[in-house]
Write a structure and sequence with these properties.
cytoplasm, 138 residues, Alpha-Beta Plaits, 19% strand, 7 helices, 40% helix, ATP binding, nucleoside diphosphate kinase activity, binds ribavirin triphosphate, binds magnesium ion
Length: 138
């Protein structure tokens, strides 16, 4: 099992001023930052990142939203990183997320849900290298 995951703080949380609180929660939960940057996706890069959802009805909205403002992208390290991080962020729909999770605290809707977390070790590697070269990971 790999010990890394990949996250983005999405445009809604950036605009609402929650980036600092979210990073604080991530660090306090025991994740080490391997790489981190603020950047902005275009419709093309957001579409490529979420290509797995291309056939889903929400794909167009998702691409538009994810390219609507700056994001923070980061690679995180911890034992059991993928699974522990998904527990920390909570369910995709913030209305269904557990108390104290990042989405419960900071997200407004299933479409605009504050954070991304990789869903497997393989995807964590693919997503991390979408944003960061090996030389940017410490
Ligand atoms: P993520 O990939 O962003 O960490 O979220 P997730 O695994 O919890 O959810 P996933 O099924 O991978 O969906 C990716 C993102 O698409 C948006 N979405 N909108 N309107 C909808 O019904 C709907 N369903 C999903 C969300 O932004 C979700 O995080
Ligand atoms: Mg997902």
């Amino acid at each position: 099992m790999s010990n890394r995951t990949f996250t983005m703080i999405k445009p809604d949380a950036m605009k609402n001023g929650h980036a600092g609180a979210i990073l604080d929660k991530i660090i306090k939960a025991g994740f080490r930052i391997v790489a981190l940057k603020q950047t902005k996706l275009t419709a093309e890069t957001a579409g490529a990142f979420y290509a797995v959802h291309k056939e889903r009805p929400f794909y167009g909205e998702l691409v538009e939203f994810m390219s609507s403002g700056v994001i923070i992208a980061a690679i995180l390290e911890k034992d059991n990183a993928v699974s522990d991080f998904r527990t920390l962020i909570g369910a995709t729909d913030p209305a269904k997320a557990d108390e104290g999770t990042i989405r419960k605290l900071y997200a407004a809707s299933v479409g605009e849900n504050a954070v991304h977390g990789s869903d497997s070790d393989d995807n964590a590697k693919i997503e991390g290298s979408f944003f960061f070269s090996g030389l940017e990971q410490y």
